[in-house]
Amino acid sequence: MVQSLDFEFIHENSCKRAVLLFHGMTGSPFEMKKMGRALYEANFDVYCYCLPGHGTSPINIKTVRWEDWYEDSVLHYKTLTEKYDEVFLGGLCLGAVLALAIAAEYEDVNGILSLSTTLFLDGWTIPWYNIFMPIAVHTILRYYYSFPEREPYGLKNEVLRKKIASLQKRNTEALDHYPMSCIYELLKFSKYARKHMFKVKAPILLMHAKEDDLTSSKSAKFVYKNVSSSIKKYIELDNSYHLVVMDNQRDFVFNTSIDFLNSRSSYVPEDARKMNFDCEVL
Description:
Blueprint: E1 9-11, E2 17-22, H1 33-41, E3 45-48, H2 66-81, E4 86-92, H3 94-105, E5 112-115, H4 133-136, E6 146-148, H5 158-168, E7 177-179, H6 180-196, E8 204-209, H7 218-226, E9 231-237, H8 250-263, E10 280-281
Parallel strand pairs: 2-3, 2-4, 4-5, 5-8, 8-9
Antiparallel strand pairs: 1-3, 6-7, 9-10
Helix pairs in contact: 3-6
């Protein structure tokens, strides 16, 4: 069985700014690799680690609590703040919620990339029987039932969709189902994050697919409306599904993210100084 360490990646330029990336629920750093490489080539040091319960045996994800995800992520963040002058946070799905929760507690976060933020499971592929989930997750059933992930696997790009479907069968790079216990923890974490959203003051860029199959734009719009950030931007993507860092508009996501981070950084490469990122300023 492939261990989580095989999925983690660190790209170091030995510079003074770093980006800590968080992957999504039931995923792994594999889904963030292309974005990590793009950020590295733009002169950021980049770190991405496997969240507890991910990247090893599928049964492990059923044993973790949301507090485990959060505490592990905070530890990585605090380690980077001791090494870098600037630390930015970026996340996809559950990873975006982690970035927001950390920023709510630590005001020294320099900026946030919030991608496909998942506060609500209300995407167009969520089964109709999802209405019973609030009842089931509070019973012992949550340890025995899983929601199978199905087409389109978060991807509008059909070629990539087939590749991801093949990888998911191995249950290493990503699981092919959502354990109800994991969903239970995500919903509890979402409730916690929403309660503390007003504490987020860091500059933030939100990008969310208009046709996100897992979580509608309600999540991103909730964040945009409730954060206290004086600098914020929300972009809706029209040719992607949930995995925006892998789908048709990934290059746009990467380039826009880089421009945003550079606009908030004091250590911008000379060839990037002329770029201007237009954010809403309150």
